[in-house]
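User: Could you write out the 3D structure of this protein bound to zinc ion? I've included everything you need below.
Assistant: Certainly. Input first, then the structure.
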Amino acid sequence: MTIAVASLLALAVLGFILTVRAKDLPEPEPVSPFAHLDERKAAIYDNLRDAQFEYRVGKLSDDDYQQTKLGLQKELAVVMAEIDRIQSSLPAPTVEPKKAAKAAPKPNTCPNCGAQFNQSLKFCGECGKPMRARA
Ligand SMILES: [Zn+2]
């Protein structure tokens, strides 16, 4: 009896799978590779809010709240790291070539008055201030 029921069930399941296959499921819409991560992120934020609320209304003890918060924050860190990982593995979208580091000061430029010299000096020949703020 049980075996009969079980095999009937198995057949039904198999039949179902085959029917679904036969229908040739359309490819799922290509979603952003972050979609599921964004959802998880949102869910974690929701949980954080819930925990905060429960803590405020006294349903969670201080310890429980901190535990929950810590756990959720860890989860969040994992999700964020995953997003980062995917982002860095994606073909970079038309990255502009890095502009020559303009911020880097020229070696022999006075940090005070901006005068330039073609040799390194301890003190500026223009304003007399030390050329290097940091040794
Ligand atoms: Zn100077």
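Residues 110, 112-113, 115, 124, 126-127, 129 surround zinc ion (CB under 6 Å).
User: Perfect, thank you.
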